[in-house]
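Can you give me the bound-state structure? Components:
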Amino acid sequence: MPDWKRLAAARGLGASDEDLARIAPVLDPLHALLCRLTAELPLLTEPLVTFRCEPEEEGR
Amino acid sequence: MTIEQAACALRARQVSAVELTREALARIERLNDRLHAFITVTGEQALVAAARADQELARGVDRGPLHGIPVALKDVFATRGVRTTCGSKIFADYVPDFDAAVTERLHAAGAVLLGKTNMHELAYGITSANPHYGAVRNPYDPDRVPGGSSGGSAVAVAAGMVFIAMGSDTGGSIRIPAAWCGVVGLKPTFGRVSRFGVLPLDFTLDHMGPLARSVRDAALALEALAGHDPRDETSSRQPVERYLPPEEPSLAGMRLGLPENFYFERIAPAAAEAVRKAARLAGEAGAAIVPVRVPDVAAMNQISRIILLAEAAAVMQPYFERREDFGEDVRLLLEQGMLLSATDYIQAQRLRRVMRDQYRRVWCDVDCLLTPTTPFPAPRLGQVDVVWNDGIEDLRLAATRLVRHLNLFGWPAISIPCGLDPAGLPLGLQIAGPPFSEARLLRVAAALEARLPKAGPPAL
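Here's the bound-state model for the whole set.
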């Protein structure tokens, strides 16, 4: 599991120790789930974010 | 009074738009100190707009059913010359020099804007306990929250201040307050209503839609709001349908899915029974009630959270130097989002595709799903957890559990009142469907609204 405290320091987040103590219990299970699900992802699965090279109108 | 009744009265000269507006402003004046539904009331501008609406009708210029109807906007919609705070201290003095697309469309439809409604700070939460503009109170019990983030809009409608109020929904922010305040809340398909001019919480999960007193009022609002807008790259070119359901809509031949798993787990008995009763009524009205099993919705909710944490952090990063100006809950969420990696975000977006493909198979078997909107009625102000027989659940996660994943896929859903719990608090029925099925959802909702018990307005 990432060390959220060190990550916060490295990114210059400036979060208080009190905030960081409350963040880890939230992010740890989220991150664990993400890792588990990602391990099962087919290699060719692309993210569901649409990028259009050109405005839609010009492609028509 | 519904919009259609008011519209008839306006055209018959039984009432004027100015009279409707004065009445609404008087109600806001009387109730807003108690309920904190509005951040900004634009009374003078509203009366000018109402007088113009009356003059136009007198000249035979009729802009349609919203002409002369008092409405409100959640304070995320840009309004030219009227401050748009997003419920935050950060934007407390932001006065846009342009209108959001929704604002434009309501103006074009002749609606009279009464002001900007209170909300959860930055639309990032479900209580609307706003630390900067006052905690919005539930009109059925002022010691309880109205839901959020569009809490002020739900209260403005429930308390009879306006006919419709616009909300935004990133993880349930229209449907949750609609359920807890006993009103109708419609989250259209992603791309159906333009996001142009709305202060974003999240670029791929935000949806705009109306809160209303009735299903037909919500349908009339959607007819005014829907349509392609080239200024919003995600705006759809799908043709706009007629959304107003027939006067007596039939359910004959409809296949309504009733989930066998997930949606009825960890839920207050009254909330579950209200939805099962709605399904029984639908069955008696000719619909086929189809038991369905849904995929891993809990995992879908978590992936939606990761995307929201990351995108909201990206939106707010430029303002984070003023961290002390954010409420504590919002600050913590932004810090969580800033700690996620780019890889985490992209993996979540990859999983989003797989999960959508898994869930959409449900639409082969049913036309729409019936579920509770929330697992319980409005919680108390200050409540942070929900206690179940088998453990404790964070309030925000519990409240969004039955609604959040629909934002992940951009699918439409509507919440309608479906009775009161034993304590007299409103309960919500969610009807969800495949993309661009708003007309179908509204038809089912109208048919059930006619058969379900009425909550009755709050005693104010």
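A couple of observations. Residues 17-39 of chain A form the longest helix (23 residues). Chain A touches chain B through 31 residues (CB under 8 Å).
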